[in-house]
Write a structure and sequence with these properties.
globular, six-stranded mixed β-sheet, 33% strand, five-stranded mixed β-sheet
Amino acid sequence: MLGYMGPDGTFTQQAAMEWSGGKEELREFPTIAGAIKAVDRGEIERCIVPIENSLNGSVTMTLDTLAFDANVYITDEHILRIAQNLIIKKGADISDIKTIISHPQALGQCSRMLEQDFAGVELKAAESTAMAAKITAESDGSIAAITSGAAAALYGLEVARAVCNDDSNNFTRFVVIEKNRALCVTGHDKTSIVLSTEHSPGSLFSALGVFAKENINMLRIESRPVKKEFGKYVFFVDIEGNIDDARIYFALKNVRDHSSFYKFLGSYRYNEI
């Protein structure tokens, strides 16, 4: 069973359907964290969640849950092209809009249009783009949503602005989460870790410098605050390679030895756009 963040019509549901190819039963969860924790508890075998968007950056709920709230692994990734649309209730007009609602990631992906064309309109966050579509369908016509074309059709809404994201080159990276790590080396893999170091000069370099020394390509690094300790951060790092390769294994051991907190998040196939 494959979990995803609902309701019906979300981009995550689309990613789940594409990744599984219709071969897995899908189960809807109201939140990203809820889907990940269901895997951790053994309620479902796996889930798929968004982790990064090419226009608006990382999905912090996914990062924080993986780092602090669950003991699970990333076992695969899936890249989905995203086309956001401004949708309204049938019979309404753009001039009727008083509120635009969507998931914060979607609002961020359309920030240029919102600033230029809807500067005086209230922006509200929803749990998902599909939920925003549902709220719009139930409104008096003064609420618009930013969501997918599929959600617009599902809830009987009109597309007022098609493909309204700031850049048409808009992709979201989804990751598949499972309780046990992937045991497969494809030859074109990625490894994800999260760590923190002592708050002292050179500590982060001491932990990560081994990648340069071993000629290991670091694909991404991002910091997130440690919720319970103000001023302290963890660092999410993606590198090329698989932990089952001896060179990667010993490099990661070096990183772990120089870290005050370390968590291996998985090695999995590296999908490029």
